[in-house]
């Protein structure tokens, strides 16, 4: 299989997801506390833990202490660009990849992502930005990827999907006949200003626990950053054939 085109995710690949989650949680806490002054932080943190155990990772928070969950998410969307924390090296890596491959963005992100990407220097590197909030299909529905590929006239067998989740990224990619790479991003994010330290601590514990339960797969490549993927593809490009999807590359 020869890679000529790349469909790259945003959250967990270009910038961290966690600051948005934490800003949302702080907003929910403040709104819920205003509604019920007797609400304790202990009770809120337990509700938060229960919520994340049931929530699909990476999906927009639908409710927590409704309707405050929705209200807080609307506030986060208004602050989207200011909350963006680029993953170190990711923007430069994407620029390097775009010099060797055709690149598009395929992501479950709100429309505000369209303003955030140029703000961090991603303007001319990508040929298309396909967001679920605008296209009408959300990952793991493969129709979101199919929509982007058809719009660009890209062939699945020449396309690699780059994401951070096996269920949302590699599974639909492989179903379409694409190859896939999963990035295991680091935890170098910082909590936004004003987030209660107890919320941050509980959130980190939840993230650590959920990370331990993530199952691996031999159907995709696994790398630790977009920079490492660029290095791997550069090496593979010098070979006559590509070893995936049966081989996992761990750097």
Short description, anyone?
This protein is α/β, with parallel strands linked by helices and 251 residues long.
Written description of the protein model:
This protein has 251 residues and is an alpha/beta fold. A 6-stranded parallel sheet has the order 3-2-1-4-5-6, with helices on both faces. Helix 10 links the parallel strand 5 (179-183) and strand 6 (221-223). Helices cover 46% and strands 10% of the residues.
CATH homologous group name: HAD superfamily/HAD-like
Number of strands: 6
CATH architecture: 3-Layer(aba) Sandwich
Main-sheet strand order equals: 3-2-1-4-5-6
Q: In CATH's first tier, which class applies?
A: Alpha Beta
**Domains (count):** 1
Mean pLDDT: 88
Q: Give the ordered list of helices and strands.
A: EHHHHHEHEHHEHEHEH
| N-end to C-end Cα span | 21 Å
Largest sheet: 6 strands, parallel
Helix/strand-derived category reads alpha/beta
Shape: elongated
Summed up, the helix count is 11
The low-pLDDT segments are 212-217, 238-251
Which range does the strand content fall in? 5-15%
Helix percent reads 40-55%
CATH topology, which one? Rossmann fold
CA radius of gyration:
19 Å
């Amino acid at each position: 299989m020869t890679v000529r085109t790349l469909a790259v995710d945003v959250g967990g690949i270009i910038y961290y997801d966690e600051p948005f989650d934490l800003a949302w949680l702080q907003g929910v806490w403040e709104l819920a506390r205003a509604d019920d002054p007797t609400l304790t932080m202990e009770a809120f943190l337990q509700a938060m833990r229960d919520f994340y155990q049931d929530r699909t990772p990476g999906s927009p928070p639908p409710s927590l202490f409704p309707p405050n969950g929705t209200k807080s998410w609307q506030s986060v969307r208004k602050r989207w660009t200011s909350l963006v924390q680029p993953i170190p090296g990711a923007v430069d890596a994407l620029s390097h990849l775009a010099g060797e491959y055709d690149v598009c963005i395929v992501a479950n992100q709100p429309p505000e992502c369209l303003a955030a990407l140029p703000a961090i220097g991603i303007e001319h590197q990508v040929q298309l930005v396909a967001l679920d909030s605008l296209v009408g299909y959300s990952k793991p529905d493969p129709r979101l990827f199919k929509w982007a590929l058809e719009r660009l006239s890209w062939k699945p067998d020449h396309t690699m999907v780059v994401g951070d989740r096996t269920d949302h990224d590699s599974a639909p990619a492989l179903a379409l006949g694409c190859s896939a790479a999963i990035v295991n991003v680091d935890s170098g994010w910082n909590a936004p200003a004003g987030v209660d330290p107890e919320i941050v601590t509980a959130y980190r514990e939840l993230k650590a626990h959920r990370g331990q339960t993530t199952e691996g797969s031999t159907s995709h490549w696994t790398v630790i950053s977009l920079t490492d993927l660029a290095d791997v593809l550069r090496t593979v490009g010098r070979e006559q054939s590509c070893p995936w999807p049966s081989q996992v590359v761990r750097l």
